[in-house]
Write a structure and sequence with these properties.
By secondary structure, the chain is α/β, with parallel strands linked by helices. Helices cover 45% and strands 21% of the residues. It is elongated and about 75 Å long.
């Protein structure tokens, strides 16, 4: 039986002892027929299909549950590029339902104050003093507990909620940095303690980025030199002047711009000259090669080359994912400026950073 559910969605129901292979062959036949071009008013049109297959004994699940699973699986096929079929998977269904639930809960979560920020120190490799901290947002979900950004930031990006959420993170982080500044005006190199805040691709394109940032700094009284905005390398690959203009304005105000996850985006190194960045943050994949003994010589050469290039362009180099003292020493010898990772401290409450700063001052 074949029925149209609405729009461009159809359902085919087959019963009997068909094996998964036979059902797969049926789906392949449907896709093959759909792919035959259709001529209309002298033009040739092609149709692509995405199919989700749910198989199981009759009566095991309700009709609504079967259709929901089929719909989720069909969208999984569509997300994988379309013109294909996927077999329903209970775990994949559960993940999709959880993602949907989290997406629906995001706006209310922001209003209810369910988000909080943990701070991971950025440390000078030269003397081990605290240079600043990166702000990392968490979601204290009433059912799922503490969720890391990988669980909800992509959802916030997709729905557009990343803009108000990102604004809240900036306000909270800058307020905290101002508190540190008042408690301990400078760290050991004489400059202000930096606060690093991540910017998503959607925030980069938002027309209010510069005005929002200026307003947050003015309200808090924090110096622009104490703020560093992190942008992933992949977000700036092929960026035109319209996208770079707000970043240039922020940089001209004295705010540092860091190119995050550097080394993973396959960007042309020559582009560094036109990007308004002052810091390169090497991806943690570079430090993983230093965990073995001896360290991977290829990774060492790559890091050495990047550091040399960065310094020749007057850029500072920060390394993520430092987990051992040996790694820290190796990176210091290679000329890296600052580092962060579990070797120094895991992300934590803001008072831990204050404690580390006081220890530096003593």
């Amino acid at each position: 039986m074949v029925a149209r559910l609405g729009g461009d969605e159809f359902v085919a129901l087959t019963t009997g002892s068909d094996s998964e292979r036979e059902v797969g062959e049926l789906a392949a036949r449907i896709l093959s027929v759909l792919s035959i071009p259709i001529r209309l008013d002298g033009r040739e049109l092609t149709v692509r299909g995405s199919i989700g297959i749910v198989e199981g004994p009759t009566g095991e699940r309700t009709a609504a549950e079967v259709l929901r699973s089929a719909d989720i699986t069909m969208y999984r096929a569509k997300a994988a590029g379309g013109n294909r079929y996927e077999i329903a998977d209970a775990e994949a269904d559960a993940r999709a339902i959880t993602r949907h639930g989290l997406t629906m809960a995001l706006p209310a979560a922001l209003e209810r104050g369910e988000f909080f920020i943990e701070y991971q120190p950025l440390v000078h490799l030269g003397d081990g003093s605290v240079h600043g901290a990166e702000a990392l947002v968490r979601w204290l979900h009433p059912q799922h507990g503490v969720l890391g950004p990988d669980r909800f930031i992509p959802l916030a990006e997709h729905t557009g909620l990343i803009v108000p959420l990102g604004r809240w993170v900036l306000e909270e982080s800058v307020r905290q940095a101002r508190f540190w500044e008042q408690q301990l005006p400078t760290h050991t190199d004489g400059g202000p303690l930096r606060i690093n805040v991540n910017l998503s691709p959607t925030q980069l394109h938002h027309p209010g980025l510069v005005a929002d940032t200026v307003a947050v700094l003015e309200r808090s009284g924090l110096s622009p030199a104490a703020l560093c905005l992190e942008v992933t390398e992949s977000a700036l690959i092929g960026a035109d002047e319209d996208l770079l203009k707000p970043l240039r304005q922020l940089a001209e105000m004295g705010i540092d711009i860091a190119l995050d996850d550097f080394g993973t985006g396959y960007s042309n190194l020559a582009n560094l000259r036109r990007l308004p960045v002052s810091v390169l943050k090497l991806d943690r994949s570079f430090t993983q090669g230093m965990q073995q003994h001896p360290a991977d010589p290829v990774d060492l050469k790559i890091v050495e080359g990047i550091v040399s290039l960065a310094h020749s362009l007057q850029l500072a180099v920060t390394v993520e994912g430092v987990e051992t003292g040996a790694q820290a020493e190796q990176l210091r010898e290679l000329g890296c400026d600052t580092a962060q990772g579990w070797y120094y401290a895991r992300p934590g409450a803001p008072d831990r950073i204050h404690t580390l700063l006081l220890a530096d001052a003593v």
